[in-house]
UniProtKB/TrEMBL annotation, chains A, B:
UniProt entry keywords in alphabetical sequence: Metal-binding
Classification via InterPro entries: DinB, DinB/YfiT-like
Residues that coordinate or bind a divalent metal cation: 44, 126, 130
Family, as annotated: Belongs to the DinB family.
Presence of keyword Metal-binding: yes
KW Protein biosynthesis (keyword) present: no
Domain of life, per lineage: Bacteria
Protein name per Swiss-Prot or TrEMBL: Damage-inducible protein DinB
Gene Ontology MF: a single term: metal ion binding
Amino acid sequence: MKMFFHYNWMVREEWYQWCEGISEEELLKKRTGGVGSILQTLFHIADVEWSWIRLLKGEDDFQESFDEYRSLSKVRELDAQFRTEVEEFVANWDTSMEHKRLHFTEKDGTVVTDQWGEVMRHIIAHEIHHIGQLSVWARELGKEPVSANLVGRGLADS
Amino acid sequence: MKMFFHYNWMVREEWYQWCEGISEEELLKKRTGGVGSILQTLFHIADVEWSWIRLLKGEDDFQESFDEYRSLSKVRELDAQFRTEVEEFVANWDTSMEHKRLHFTEKDGTVVTDQWGEVMRHIIAHEIHHIGQLSVWARELGKEPVSANLVGRGLADS
């Protein structure tokens, strides 16, 4: 579990660096698929990660809209602010937490139950999926995307 | 580890079903990013998964080209053929295998060492990343992509 979170944070940081070479107009441009723009995807990844961790902790999740974060520096700041709490939760994760139950009510009133282990994997897969979308948009911009390789990053030694 | 493989196989099967509603021409059409077409992406996912498992087992990997598999039914057949072996390996996975070493030589002669746990996670992330690319191409076709949600699939109970 932990290695996947470290992988995602490393890849996300590389995407932030990649974004430094792209104009703000291109970062905010509406694109086909996903949540619609490169920057909003990165915002969405950080938002969703932190919001689920907050749910697991039984605390309020993030409700603000992207409208307040329409620049690379604002998204990075928000992500850094969230990260401390997410990192702490991930660092303290152990397998005894796998089958704990999270109950919550969806917008339509349905009560949903997920196991904590599912939620953690959902967060991981959610980011990798959206990063795959960024890689297509990068090519559409004529740019090489960040590598998605998990091997070769020294993750097993960290 | 096992839950992620089950997630990927479930999502992959849903993409095969999704493909049934798309013409072969669209499935084979060259697209921007990734490995280039919807069908070649699914072929690539099955190929890469099986090839890494074969490397871990110390056996020959898959060397055939996509040219021989340019139809949905052929890709599904190949995937089913590979799956038996991959499923067996995944079913027998345990944490004692995490730090085993895989050594192999890359095309340029470099000798690379990866830990088995990294390789297994690489296979998982590899598929999710490419599925993210399919989701953009689906929207470009005006079609709703397969859901990438990991929660809500009953995976923790299986």
